[in-house]
Design the sequence.
């Protein structure tokens, strides 16, 4: 029988032995801590500068009741918002852990700090749950973890999500909330996840089941330029930043101020890149409607 | 860089100039300097090896950006015959930052595509400094789909800093077009050989860079982010790009080790621009060798291998016994 | 036309108004006019039959353009449930002159597309008076290809004067997009039912009008050229459009005879706007009947029949005995 | 055995019995008489107003030697320009004749007059010939005949061209010189030829042989919006009018003057609709190059 070491030798590009974290197993964060929402009783709305009571904000799905600004929500809270119940959610591949393939300076430390702070192991949570009782495969990116950027683990978990969904004939919902693009610290391997996820989407498509991509603030760079743009249905929360190149880079390139509303959800809708803008409170009903239209 | 000469290669270039002067003198005046020339050439050889054999990642980035480095059309001209350039995305515009067409490579009809930098200021303006808009990527995809229709293999020559980050490019869906290209290219039922000939900048390179084989010139770079932007993010200082080039592992040898590329095409000492014909010859040899291998496969097999290759990309770690068991028994992919 | 009433229907409309007045009077004042009303209604029935039973082609064109005639979204609302409108061509723009999405038709998931006229001035401006740009056609095609992916039948509701003749539309390839739509639509491996609900103007209609079955509302028109433009070309006088409507054979009965459409959906006397619910009911019944027939066919058979149908369109004459022999023996197509 | 009448009854939509012309058989016109080139020794160039000697003009492929204006050329002359020799050309379906399906007033008379004047039976000549010795199926529209517009016969001859080319594994070249769009007099049946020809192109495409579409002045309306836009390679002569809506209609719609160069070949190239602009004297070499790239 092969030893562990032999196994790794046959798959050298895929699995390495140096662990970043000591303990495996799915991690359930106690509560989301998005950047915009500081700890404490009150939060300031970046949209209208109002001071909002945290408990009210949370009840309102983290949408400002004054101006409609959509705050970041963490992966687990998002699951709670769209699924029938988080209790029905079964996590997949929670044990897949990040390594430092390039030996990028400071990556391990930053990973450990982020894991500590967010309670997440990586920038995506995937698994299967129920929505209006329809079984559905779900992936949620979490902005709080490396800005929701895609490294090897995010790419791999997404690929497995689509593969397993195809096997089980499940629809897929992926919330790119919010895709910060590439995981710079994994260099070219991060770029390759774009290819891997696009291919996974296409292969999944042959199952005849739908893939709904939900874009939230921000969905940029390598996340936008891969799986997030390939949904059979592409929904976006209002006011989200959506685009390929970062607005600062565009501004620096063209050497003039950006037009107002540039790279927002509304801009993407107007230019034909998405199907609909969906208020957060409408997200669950619209997803349910899509599942109903694809019911078997 | 002054007149196409980097500071770090100046001693060599001055020596080379000296040799040329002596040679010219010999020819004009008939005085024999052959011994002196021989001595200087030995010295130049030593210096050349010293300077160019241990290039830093940043020095390679500089070579990849050398203004006299052959461009896509230069390579096509040197390795192909009967090149018929084709235009347009049938949708919005003909983007001259991306070129493509049909040609014969050693008698084999191929479709060739690639971003095209200008070879002077005027051409650079026309070609938007080789930075494609969505139309350019759509044109490349159109030509690749045409290649699939006719069962022609595809050669993608990649030299691009990135997809153009402009207002109109964003309006017309730079992100969407890159995703679409990656998806469609991944499933083309003809052999696809990509060569990073110069710069391989992020999604703008990958959008024409998914292939059965990805080759890379010795001094080319290929990265998820440019060294300058990486330095800006890490240290808020684009001046530290040379350092960033080091940590990003963007050179050919690193990429070969990471399994992202399949072969390195060696360049003459000092970079491709120092012997264009020779580097074109090597490019042609390598491309033909890979194409011939791939053309022997049937399309299903070709696709299967291509997808398996990308499926395995990335590095991570899992701790469950279950998963390890699955990998060992071949139940899990990759 | 004044207030949505054509000159030639004025006597009837005035009579109908009179009847309504008397009915209101009866209700308000309690005075019994039932006998007078009955008399007037008999007279109205006679008049209605007289005016509407023998409409000229031009009168039908006018009815097809009636401002209160149901639009695409009106029909979708009346015949479907769970309509999910989808947007964008993923390329340039979301053209609101073309709408589309997924819905349930009697519980069957279908994709529905169609040009959309505005129902008031503000909406007309937003929807460019229902004249699509290339983006609109590309959106429709995107949704139809999505339907094919999911094996969903397609309903195309056609009411369009034509593809928009503007500068940007021409820049972005109005001609190319129509050709592409016709080509791709012809080979969709799912049932396609098209209904000309109002106006069917030339290539702008055909670009979403290739189907296994093409139905037509009784007062719709469908032609290679609008009566106005035909009159302009023939007589340099758009005022003679009524005459042109006659020679073009653009009415439902003519098209049925020419083999271009498969069925006429009858409208209430006086046009679809006079009883929207009833006309929607008839539309739904006809569409469902055809869809159910088509859904029973396998995709190869479906495609084969669709192509044969269009292959046979046109009229001509050949004099060779050879060709006639070929037709008889079934060697020649169509 | 079936009688003639029975045959027609089984195919009523396809063949009708009322002949427009008495005599069948391929017609070889004596010489092209495009509108721009009046009979006589001299012609005036619409590009530069020069007075040109007809014989010189003809030698120069009907291109003005001063300004490069490309004059219309008739179908037979075009064949002579691109084929190795007109003698090798074998015409197809020359016997297919036009009827008046709608009973359109004056159609028969105009047809007869046009046939008389041009020596052509319809707006297209199709057949097989050789180009640099490659056998190739060719269709040439002739502007002199109803502005090169597409009625039932043009559609039918094109469909058969593509079908026969597929059977014989031949490449196809169609010169839309110049497609005046729809044949108004055949009404809706003219529109249906757009569908028929697009379908013929697509089916032909499955043979793996190339289809080269050559656009000459003018290629508009239903011709442009069908087979002419679907070439694997789309070439255009310089300065040709190319578009869907006629320029006068566009001008009337937008209520402002058209930008200069609107709907020219150069405009089409810039906007990505065609592959190349090819001078008339380069047409034959470029076609030969394409055939060489597709040689078997
Ligand atoms: Zn607010
Ligand atoms: Zn001239």
Sequence:
């Amino acid at each position: 029988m092969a030893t562990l070491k032999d196994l790794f030798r046959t798959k050298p590009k895929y699995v390495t032995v140096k662990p970043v974290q000591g303990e495996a197993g799915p991690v359930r964060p106690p509560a989301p801590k998005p950047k915009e929402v500081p700890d404490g009783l009150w939060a300031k709305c970046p949209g209208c500068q109002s001071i909002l009571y945290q408990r009210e904000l949370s009840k309102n799905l983290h949408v400002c009741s004054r101006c409609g600004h959509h705050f970041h929500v963490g992966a687990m809270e998002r699951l709670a918002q769209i699924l029938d119940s988080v209790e029905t959610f079964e996590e997949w591949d929670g044990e897949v852990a990040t390594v430092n393939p390039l030996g990028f300076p400071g990556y391990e430390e930053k990973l450990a700090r982020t894991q500590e702070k967010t309670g997440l192991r990586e920038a995506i949570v995937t698994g299967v749950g129920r929505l209006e009782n329809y079984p559905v495969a779900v992936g949620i990116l979490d902005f709080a973890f490396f800005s929701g950027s895609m490294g090897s683990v995010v790419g791999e978990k997404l690929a497995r999500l689509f593969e397993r969904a195809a096997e089980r004939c499940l629809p897929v919902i992926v919330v790119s909330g919010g895709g910060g693009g590439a995981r710079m610290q994994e260099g070219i391997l991060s770029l390759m996840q774009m290819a891997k996820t696009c291919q996974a989407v296409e292969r999944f498509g042959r199952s005849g089941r739908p893939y709904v991509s939900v874009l939230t603030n921000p969905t940029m760079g390598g996340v936008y330029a891969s799986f997030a743009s390939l949904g059979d249905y592409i929904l976006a929360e209002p006011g989200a930043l959506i685009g390929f190149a970062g607005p600062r880079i565009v501004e620096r390139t063209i050497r003039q101020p950006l037009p107002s509303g540039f790279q927002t959800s509304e801009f993407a809708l107007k230019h034909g890149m998405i199907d609909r803008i969906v208020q957060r409170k409408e997200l669950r009903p619209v997803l349910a409607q899509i599942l109903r239209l694809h019911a078997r | 860089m002054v007149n196409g000469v980097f500071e770090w290669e100046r001693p060599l270039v001055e020596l080379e100039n000296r040799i040329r002067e002596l040679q010219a003198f010999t020819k004009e005046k008939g005085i024999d300097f052959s011994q002196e020339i021989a001595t200087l050439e030995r010295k130049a050889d030593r210096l050349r090896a010293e300077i160019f054999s241990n290039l830093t990642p940043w020095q390679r980035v500089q070579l990849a950006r050398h203004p006299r480095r052959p461009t896509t059309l230069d390579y096509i001209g040197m390795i192909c015959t009967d090149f018929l350039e084709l235009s347009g995305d049938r949708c919005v515009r003909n983007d001259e930052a991306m070129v493509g067409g049909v040609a014969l490579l050693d008698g084999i009809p191929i479709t060739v595509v690639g971003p095209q930098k200008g070879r002077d200021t005027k051409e650079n303006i026309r070609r938007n400094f080789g930075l494609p808009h969505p139309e350019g990527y759509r044109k490349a995809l159109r030509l690749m789909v045409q290649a699939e229709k006719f069962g022609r293999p595809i050669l993608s020559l990649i030299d691009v800093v990135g997809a153009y980050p402009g207002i109109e490019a964003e309006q017309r869906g730079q992100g969407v077009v890159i995703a679409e290209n990656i998806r469609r290219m991944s499933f083309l039922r003809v052999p696809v050989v990509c060569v990073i000939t110069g710069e391989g900048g992020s999604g703008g390179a990958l959008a024409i860079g998914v292939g059965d084989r990805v080759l890379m010139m010795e001094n080319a770079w290929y990265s998820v982010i440019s060294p300058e932007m990486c330095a800006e993010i890490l240290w808020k200082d684009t001046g530290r790009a040379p350092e960033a080039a080091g940590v990003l592992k963007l050179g050919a040898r690193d990429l070969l080790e990471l399994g992202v590329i399949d072969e390195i095409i060696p360049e003459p000492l000092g970079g491709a621009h120092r012997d264009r014909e020779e580097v074109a010859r090597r490019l042609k040899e390598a491309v033909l060798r890979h194409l011939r291998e791939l053309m022997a496969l049937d399309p299903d097999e070709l696709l299967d291998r291509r997808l398996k290759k990308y499926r395995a990309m990335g590095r991570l770690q899992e701790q469950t016994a279950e998963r390890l068991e699955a990998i060992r028994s071949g139940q899990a992919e990759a």
